[in-house]
Amino acid sequence: MPTITVENAEACQTFEIKPGESLLVGSEKCLSRAIPVGCRGGGCGVCKVRIVMGRYDSKRMSKAHICERQADAGYVLACRVYPLSDMRIEVVNQSQAEKACLK
Amino acid sequence: MKKGVMRPGHVQIRVLDLEEAVAHYRDLLGLIEMDRDDQGRAYLKGWTEVDKFSVVLRQADEPGMDFMGFKVLNNTVLEQLESDLTAYGCAVEQIAAGELAGCGRRIRFEVPTGHRFELYAEKEQTGKWGVSNVNPEAWPMDLKGMKATRFDHCLLYGPNVEATYALFRDVLGFDLAEQVIDPEGNRVAAFLTASMKAHDIAFIDCPEPGKFHHASFFLETWESVLRAADLISMTNTSIDIGPTRHGLTHGQTIYFFDPSGNRNEVFCGGDYHYPDHEPVTWKAEDLGKAIFYHDRVLNERFLTVLT
Questions:
Q1: What is the CA radius of gyration of chain A?
Q2: Mind listing the pLDDT tens digit for each residue in B209-260?
């Protein structure tokens, strides 16, 4: 099973991915949940991470959140990424407060 | 005052993968697949709806809502509202009959929250699906999934809720059924109705224009909402929150996401509204209870996860 290391988590964090699971679902099953959870469908952009190292398959994600330039720089939405090897990733620090409405 | 807008008629939703989306809306929500067109769009509806379709799915690079359409009483009303919208200062776009398969002439305009709406008077009526209009049985036996009965409303996020409310009230004849008011007296949410329902369309204030919060579908009972929750788990569908009750409208609800991250709601119950009713007010400082009546705490996702 691929092991994922989150390089910029508060405490160094690793979790394993079961076959067929996305990066986000693997993170959600881990108690510390390093990756923020949104729609889980590649639409809302909340679970954006940067892949530092590792091989993966991916499904389509919203161009509103991952443009070609970002995709080239290794940015992805974790809910659409299916790891094929051990991976090292960084959670992208999008301030939830900035995104919040009604505040 | 009523101006002849009858009901929410359709919503066109952008999805990342059409077949995956059709399977979700058809097999999980239980909508009926009615047609496809030469642009590759899929047309669906709830089984109790008499018109041919109410949900249109279009494959695109970004999920979200293309537009929502309201059906008006007749072509005289359509012409009147077209001239009223123009006089109000809206740019009105003409869309020819048949651009949506089975739909008559539509007029399209953008409201200050950044969302596009349409009005139309005619759509092919295929009747309720699976039951006759004469001596109808209670329900068709071969419905799938949640057996959603109809497309009910959308909740949309954007700026200028006040100006959008004014347009819906003054030009389109909607009533304000429910609202959320902040301590400074600003209306930060407006639930609007053209009928007796607690909402036919709702807006919540948000700096980013044109955002889609959810499309909602009606179920008969709380038992059906619980059964929907079971189906969401059985199919490993992405859940948002619920089953629970809203303070606003008092509907009993569950939220989940389609495979492209567009939020769906199925709900039952809810308050009713007559034109002489005062709007129901929730205070923004009690927003947790207004939105999630049982938890009384807002989850951040409800405010920030949008397409």
A1: 13
A2: 999 999 999 999 999 999 999 999 999 999 999 999 999 999 999 999 999 9
CB contact under 8 A, B257 and A43: yes
Alpha-carbon gap, residue B260 to B117, rounded angstroms: 22
Q: What structural domains does chain A harbor?
A: 3-102 (3.10.20.30)
- What is the ipTM score, two decimals? 0.90
Residues 19..78 of A with a Cβ closer than 8 Å to B: which?
37-44, 46, 59-64
Residue A36, SS3 per DSSP: coil
Question: pLDDT (tens digit, 9 = 90+) per residue, B176-186?
Answer: 999 999 999 99
B277 counts as catalytic: no
In the residue annotation, B274 being an active-site residue is answered as no
User: Rounded CA gap, A82 and A26, in Å?
Assistant: 10
Asked about B255 being catalytic, the answer comes back as yes
* R_g of chain B computed on alpha carbons: 18
Catalytic residue among B153, B165, B213, B273: B153
- The reply to whether the predicted model has a pTM over 0.90 is yes
